[in-house]
Write a structure and sequence with these properties.
Blueprint (H helix, E strand, L loop, with lengths): L3 E7 L2 E7 L9 H14 L7 E6 L20 H21 L4 E5 L2 E3 L1 H7 L3 E5 L3 E3 L11 H11 L1 H10 L2 E3 H6 L5 E3 L4 H13 L3 H16 L2 H5 L13 H12 L6
Parallel strand pairs: 2-3, 3-4, 4-6, 5-7, 6-9
Antiparallel strand pairs: 1-2, 7-8
Helix pairs in contact: 1-2, 4-5
């Protein structure tokens, strides 16, 4: 099976599913493009009332698919295009969606997965899920717009620990931080997410759109706008020794030497 983003519908509900078998649904470049296309399609479907975002096979998303990284990350222009034209374009399409987004989180929710979950309005998690963005081990930072998004969703303390210390945290810690609405026993997660989405689908859709517009305006006035000036030089590290060593060490399954 190939990596993909699938989209299916059940009445007023849409289901966006991340799938990369054998890689805990790590996001490929193709998946980022498909994610953007999925949400652009959803924006043209006024009969929908709610979108559930989840992963396949017991994981949400383990981050980016690092097997692709040596083919483009060490060139400034290509690295910039990846983050600005592929990753951020997909996340921006999620943020622009007028429908309520409910995240069904289980297993690994790392890096790119944390970014995707941060775009959702309501996040329900299996109790055993793990969260983090340990890319410092790979020798590179989170892109400014993505970091601003994550910091706004999980809070400053957790964002700093995840990005500066490669901290990995359990679902209870993310619940305490306000990132998650609730924790469920693993076996109960799917039913709880469906029940929550169906409740949303019975409520006034215009009110939901207006509430989301208010939340978007508040977000844009804060961290997202502050991150914009950083983008100009954000990818100058592309050809650095640390960047190359971090990715090489991961692919070689060894400890990096920085």
């Amino acid at each position: 099976m190939t990596a993909s983003i699938s989209l299916h519908f059940e009445g007023p509900l849409a289901f966006v599913t991340l799938s990369n078998p054998g890689r805990l649904n790590a996001m490929t470049r193709g998946m980022w493009r498909e994610l953007r296309e999925a949400f652009e399609r959803l924006a043209r479907m006024p009969a929908l009332r709610c979108v559930i975002v989840g992963g396949e096979g017991g994981a949400f998303c383990a981050g980016g698919d690092i097997s692709e990284y040596p083919s483009f990350r060490f060139d400034v222009a290509r690295l910039r295009a990846f983050h600005e034209d592929e990753v951020w374009a997909a996340l921006a399409a999620m943020l622009a969606c007028e429908l309520p987004l409910v995240a069904r989180i289980e297993g690994a929710c790392m890096g790119a997965g944390l970014e995707i979950a941060s775009c959702c309005d309501i996040r329900l998690s299996a109790a055993s899920a793990k969260f983090g963005a340990p890319i410092a081990k790979l020798g590179f930072p989170m892109a400014p717009r993505e970091a601003a998004l994550v910091q706004g969703a999980i809070g400053d303390a957790l964002a700093r620990d995840m990005l500066l210390a490669a901290g990995i945290h359990g679902a209870q810690r993310l619940l305490e931080a306000g990132f998650l609405l609730s924790l469920l026993p693993d076996a109960d997660l799917e039913a709880a997410v469906l029940a929550h989405a169906r409740r949303i689908a019975t409520l006034a859709p215009t009110a939901a759109r207006l509430n989301k517009a208010t939340f978007a305006a508040l977000r844009q006035a804060g961290a997202q706008q502050a991150a914009a000036p950083l983008v100009a030089s954000a990818y100058d590290y592309a050809d650095s020794a640390e960047h190359r060593e971090g990715i090489a060490a991961f692919l070689d399954k060894r400890t990096p030497s920085f």
